[in-house]
Amino acid sequence: LKMFWFYLPLHLLMVACLCHSIKAPTTRSQQSLKTDLFNFYHSLILADGKETTIHLLKDIPKRYYFVLEEGRALAPFTITVTPCDVPIEWSILAYKASASFLGKAAQGDHDTQEVSKSQKSPSMVSTIFNYKGNSVETYMGMSSHSALYMLEFLSTERDTHITVYLTTDTTSGHLYPELPMDPRIDVVGIGHTTVTLTWKHSPSVLQHAENIQYCLLVNEKHNYKSLCAAETAIRSSGMKLPPTLALSLSPYLLEPQQVMILSNSELSIINKVSSGEVRQICMGTKNTYTVPSLSPSTQYYFDVFVVNLLTNASAAYTGTFARTLEEPEPKVMELKDGKVIRVVLDGKNQKLYSLQYQARHKKIQFTFQLCRGHVRVHITKNGKTVAMENISGLRYFSLKGKLLDRYVVQLRSTEQSNSSVKVQVSPHFHKPLFPLLPDSLKIKSFSKLRTCNSVTIAWLGTQEESKYCVYKKKIEEDQMWMELQSVDRCSGPESRHKAEKVLCKYFHDVNVQRAVTTETIKGLDAGTLYMFDVYLFGPSGIPVRYHSKVVKTRKKC
């Protein structure tokens, strides 16, 4: 039996000795001690030098313990607890046993009365630290070979999880990156859609730049005290988020609510959540950053985390917030009767472009020709909406009112890239700016009539005698999408090379059902991709471009 005690590990030896000491409790204090030790014995061992994730159920305490390795006298240790959601309560309890008691226990001396007397001291169990809140908290202390430590965690609000890091080795560096003496984030510039931030470098960046990077979190709700808390908040909004945001830039599959942008060595992940947009930007070791594409007159919260790429452990700077400037009133351009203007719309910043017109006639007509992209038109008369829609191609709005009615036209690009549109207002219905258009502006090709050096196309005409000009352009297959996207539908043949012109012809038919014409374009190269365009000219001379058609000649005939 003596040999058995001799070979027991220190932490089991202490548990066995302490349990023996309460073999026959006779007082309330001894009964309480027995309960504590029973809980202690059924706790889990906390790993040394490793971050542990602990899941807590509401109102159910969870206990972990640790002891110093056998053979060590006094040594410093640190415990860092990171709440990942709601505030928690946690404490550190020390269980101490005298050296004489341990010596007797190891020798197999089990005098129950003597042991009981030696354990009646209230100093046997002491709480050396306790905390309640949701901040990241670190305790530093000295561990004794004759003491066991219990950590107790409790969540009273709801089920949650935390991370705990214990280490007794202070010589091998830090799991968590270090924060500077002043961990605040400074706002050094505020614009309508941008905020510029700067912060002091982490000492870890200066020592291990290749393994450390900064990541910025931007949201409209509140600051987060840890990266763990930020991830939990995003997940609770209905999104699956990769662990620690995949901050090592490892590839992973994004969820449908996520957009990832990688440019200039910066990784941006935009999460579309119910409470708004949450952005995560990792910018390497730069400690100044301008956050782009924000909304005017909006309050944003900014958190910077310094991240160890090898362990994914992180430390949080003190978060800040800022409100972007109000958007200035858009400049309003005055429209004049019969004059055509072209408006280029900023798609990236989604700015509104306003035009106004004071009617000099009771009946007027607005004409819009979409040149590129996608545009939404909103027309008001004396402050009341009279028309609102997304336009494509050519669109007329004929409106009736009173003399001196004030019309305001607001234009906005509905996509991220820039859009452009031509606008005209006129009271002269009998002098249209644009030619009479067919029901469709599509060009049709006939696959069966394709040869190695010719293509046959067809398009619709009108009842009005008009001029049609056909142009062709040789393109590469990998450029087809770009060519079609970059087409300016408001540009005329004057923008084309002379060599691209195929022919011009006049035609019409009083029966609109038969107003169709075909043309066979010859002299083409085999197995080659061509883009064909048709321009329609009306009485005013302003052309309307049909939708481009891409056709490939046969490779073998």
TrEMBL record:
A Pfam family: NDNF_C
Gene Ontology terms, MF aspect: heparin binding
InterPro entries: FN3_dom, FN3_sf, Ig-like_fold, NDNF, NDNF_C, NDNF_Fn(III)_1, NDNF_N
Predominant place of localization: secreted
Signal peptide limits: 1-24
Keywords on record: Glycoprotein, Neurogenesis, Repeat, Secreted, Signal
Job of this protein: Secretory protein that plays a role in various cellular processes. Acts as a chemorepellent acting on gonadotropin-releasing hormone (GnRH) expressing neurons regulating their migration to the hypothalamus. Also promotes neuron migration, growth and survival as well as neurite outgrowth and is involved in the development of the olfactory system. May also act through the regulation of growth factors activity and downstream signaling. Also regulates extracellular matrix assembly and cell adhesiveness.
Name under which the protein is recorded: Protein NDNF
Organism this protein belongs to: Tricholaema leucomelas
Taxonomic lineage: Eukaryota, Metazoa, Chordata, Craniata, Vertebrata
